[in-house]
Predict the structure.
Amino acid sequence: MAVKKKATKRKTTTKKKATTKKRVVSKKKATTKKKAKSKKPAFGGYAINFAGREETVEQVFGNKPIAPSEMTKRIWTFVKSKSLSNR
């Protein structure tokens, strides 16, 4: 027969953690209702409206491939010639 070992209880020691009291600052939640924001103008103050235009992209840019910088120039030429901006 095999000899059974007795189960021994081990004492566990609890270490107290050094606690530092932190000051909790409670922030009051804003209880005011948000006001309805009026619509801001576009960044830089420009607002362009293409609504109701019948021109196609081909008419504005042409048939050949162009660089993005050239596209920007042609768009602004079109906008200024048709008075589509708010300035």
Remarks:
- Residues 7 and 40 are 78 Å apart (CA to CA).
